[in-house]
Amino acid sequence: MIQAAPISKGLNVEAIRKEFPILERLVKGKPLIYLDNAATSQKPQSVIDALTEYYSGYNANIHRGIHTLAEEATAAFERSRDTARDFIGANVREEIIFTRGTTEGINLVAYTWGRQNIHAGDEIIISGLEHHSNIVPWQILCEEKKAVLKVIPINDKGELVLEKFDELLSSKTKLVAVAHVSNALGTINPVKYIIDAAHNVGAKVLIDGAQSSVHLDIDVQDLDCDFFAFSSHKVYGPTGVGVLYGKKSILELMPPFQGGGEMIKEVTFEKTIYNELPYKYEAGTPNIGDTVAFKAALDFVNRIGKENIKRHEDELLEYATSELLQIPDLKIIGTSAEKASVISFVIDRIHPQDLGILLDNNGIAVRTGHHCAQPLMDTFCIPGTVRASFAVYNTIHEIDELVAGLRKAIKMLA
Amino acid sequence: MSENKSIQEIEADIIDEFSLFDSWDEKYEYIIDMGKKLPELDEKYKLDENKVKGCQSTVWLVAEMENGKIIFKADSDAVIVKGLISMLIRVLSNHTPDEIIEAKLEFIQKIGMTSHLAQTRSNGLLSMVKQMKNFALAYKLKQSLINN
Questions:
Q1: Residues in chain B closer than 8 A to A407 (CB atoms)
Q2: Domain residue ranges in chain A
Q3: How do residues A317-346 score in pLDDT, each as one tens digit?
Q4: How high is the mean pLDDT of chain A?
Q5: Can you tell me the distance from the alpha carbon of A208 to that of A231, in angstroms, rounded to the nearest whole number?
Q6: Which residues of A touch B81 (CB under 8 A)?
Q7: Which of A7-16, A315-324, A394-403 has the lowest mean pLDDT?
Q8: Is B28 close to A361, i.e. CB distance below 8 A?
Q9: How far is B53 from chain A (nearest CA, A)?
């Protein structure tokens, strides 16, 4: 049966692919098909160039030096902050704190705001589809403070059960911390509803934006979340950089996270006066080079346009879903009505790892395992899934290759 | 039969067998076939304490001493891993603790397994080897305690 593959409308994907040098390489003798974008995205040439230009042109420590290189490096670093502010629609640049990534952002909130504001008997609500990074920091905090961690259950489609969430909310709720998009299933959570409902009982809300920031248009002011954390490396930027957004009014009242250089205004042995926002939370020499190059990644996304990216990824998701479902005994885990371009599946009697190894042998990179969301896997009574996640540079042809690779693997394993 | 062969001789057999294959598809088919042929481990052994740590799939490994030689039995819920462990059992099982401890297991590298398996998975393979050698060390220690 010959069926014409639908051609993606609007985006010139071939031209976009040319911006990503890694997509030229072979894996196991075959052209790389990279479908592990929810783990980390590949980097366009502009990001790689920005890194090289920084180190070969104006590497210097920032905020202190009086010399030309320090001025240039500081200016570039701070331009990244402005671009990041713009990217998520924050009100002022002081609300953008650079971190090592989403995980550090969440931990920063747990260790500062959390230690100051969570007391014995208080409740923190998370959801059943969180990444370990949005579970463990709250477990540690709850244990230390004798607070209680509550979990919003999910239904068999992988959607949050909002009625249960409403029941969990009370005057004891001090914080709700949920993922915007599930890394394992792709579910887009109704965070606006969650934020409004949490605010009604006086709770603060942290949104884990690790998976959403690359797919969805983010406007933290419209969402009205109190904290929003995301990572550069999932948005086509370098590893080791992330952003924690916090409302200025909240950040100002929080104690510092780490002590050291950069975060101080005045130090005597008797007392230290902390620096102003956002530097109060950026102790030590930051990851300057990667942060500078992060701007190039955000510029890339802005140039293509989030709307165009989403349209393309939605097409890929829809096509992949219908093609995968034609494989006998394949079951998609996570069938929420609202999904980002992440597709997790299992095949009867075949271990995800076997599929992952055989797909890799065909140059196809997918993720297999529990996706750092073991409680979620337990809910579905599975040890893990195969996860294919799509980015702006993926094509319909690559999905055809994935399906062909799977059919071949199933035949070998049968 | 492998009973009479030394570890090195069995390793050489495996290297010979793999040299017949032209592609990794064929090598994987062979590994999968070995995985399927490995006798299933009795449910009574499928305990948490018998699990090998460091593997993405679940691997159970048990060892018994018979006539001065160690007999390994293992199972996994993933068939390629089962094939890999089946090869390790073929090489190491039915040898003395000293022979197992001293085994260099160069066949793993020579059949291209270390370079072909992603680091995370070859770590799983190394975890299995380590666990088998640990069993050999433990039996050796036990023997020397009895003898003294």
A1: none
A2: 13-36+305-413, 48-303
A3: 999 999 999 999 999 999 999 999 999 999
A4: 95
A5: 10
A6: 353
A7: A7-16
A8: yes
A9: 15
- Domain holding B23, by residue range, is 2-147
Number of domains in chain B: 1
Element holding A247 (H helix, E strand): none
Interface probe with B: pick from A349, A357, A385, A407, most Cβ of B within 10 Å: A357
Asked if the C-beta of A412 comes within 8 angstroms of chain B's C-beta atoms, the answer is: yes
pLDDT tens, B74-105?
999 999 989 999 999 999 999 999 999 999 99
Is CATH 3.90.1150.10 correct for A13-36+305-413? yes
Amino acid identity of residue A103, one-letter, is T
Distance from C-alpha of A319 to C-alpha of A314, rounded to nearest angstrom: 8
Answer whether B28 sits within 8 Å of A412, measured CB to CB. yes
Q: Look at the block and give the residue holding tokens 């985006």.
A: A11
* Angle between the N-to-C axes of helices A396-413 and A306-324, in degrees from 0 to 180, rounded to the nearest 10: 30
Q: How confident is the model at residue A403 (pLDDT cuts 50, 70, 90)?
A: very high
Residues of A in contact with B75 (CB under 8 A): none
- A184's tokens: 């394992």
Q: What are the chain B neighbours of A361 within 8 Å (beta carbons)?
A: 24-25, 28, 116
Rg (CA), chain A: 22
CATH of residue B128: 3.90.1010.10
Cβ–Cβ under 8 Å, residues B147 and B51 = no
Structure tokens at A107: 């931990």
What are the E-state strand segments in A146-186?
148-152, 173-179
Nearest to A38 by CA among A412, A343, A401, A403: A343
**At a CB cut-off of 8 Å and minimum separation 6, what does A188 contact?**
A180, A181, A212, A216, A336, A338, A339, A340
**pLDDT higher than threshold 90 for residue B2:** no
Among residues B31, B34, B38, B55, the one annotated as catalytic is: B55
Cross-chain residue pair A357–B117, CB shorter than 8 Å: yes
- CATH of A48-303 given 3.40.1280.10, 1.10.10.60, 3.40.640.10, 3.30.365.10: 3.40.640.10
Residue A6 has pLDDT above 60, yes or no: no
Q: Could you read off the pLDDT of A122-159 as tens digits, one per residue?
A: 999 999 999 999 999 999 999 999 999 999 999 999 99
